[in-house]
Specification:
Length: about 325
Amino acid sequence: MAAKVLMTGGSSFTGVWIAEALAQAGFEVVAPLLRPREGYDGVRLDRVVRLEKAAVVTYGRAFGSQALLDDIRAAKPDVLVHHAAHITGYRSPDFDPVDALARNTAGAREVLQTVRRAGGRLMIVTGSVFEAGEGGGEEPGAVTPYGLSKTLTTAAFDYWTRETGLAFGRFVIPSPYGVLEERRFGWHLFRSWFAGETPLVRTPLYVRDHLAAPQLARGYAEYVAASLVAEALPAPARPSGWIAPQGDLALKVAAEAGRRLGRECPVELGQQARFDEPRVRVNDQPQWGAGWDETAFWDAYVEWYAGLHRAGALN
């Protein structure tokens, strides 16, 4: 019988990729979502439609809610993957890490107890390179308010899993990109090119660990499988992709897009003098997710943005 994974956050950009990879690896996936189905539109609805093909999706399931507890009792998952996190306004210096902690951990003790009583063995929390002790930088603690919220969330679940008797694992995500991504860096590049403009990269000197979504998802599924059979508590996974300055990523995307679109995709690299975030934030384990098809990734990535442009949705 296939192992079952109950995974929060499945409608996020990385969440839908992870759910697909888990299903492809032979896991049965249950994906409770926060909103009712009619609460999703645009790219977020596209993700939900894709998620429904890989998982049993339930709606209106806030973390800690009675509905979520009922899902756990019905599914009897072997693994709880807590991929969801409060991120609204996460780039703002006014982001409230204590409020985010409360949202991320609402009813957590009862959730974990219910997982354990249902026969669950393992909980995995998705972490961030902006947490304390992560990212390979020289900062002594968490960086950015969002990083602090993730640090506090990790500490809380580490405590409660030990109390509950579940094994505890962490999968630390660096800088993901790919099809169905948020409206950030890649969106800015392609929107500019299709509008006949040259995109400006304002932070070309930030060194980040650029992890393509298929590699990230494949690595996550590998980590879940390895953690289930581990005799000791699983060590955190810190998957690494391509470590390079943000400016180099822009030039690579431009080259890959230009070849596939048959047009010039120019990029302007700004003179970065301000560093509101750490200059370096990277992982150190390139073995996770090896063997993904990079050519197929770029084909799909460029075509996805081209499709958005044809539909008038790239704005």
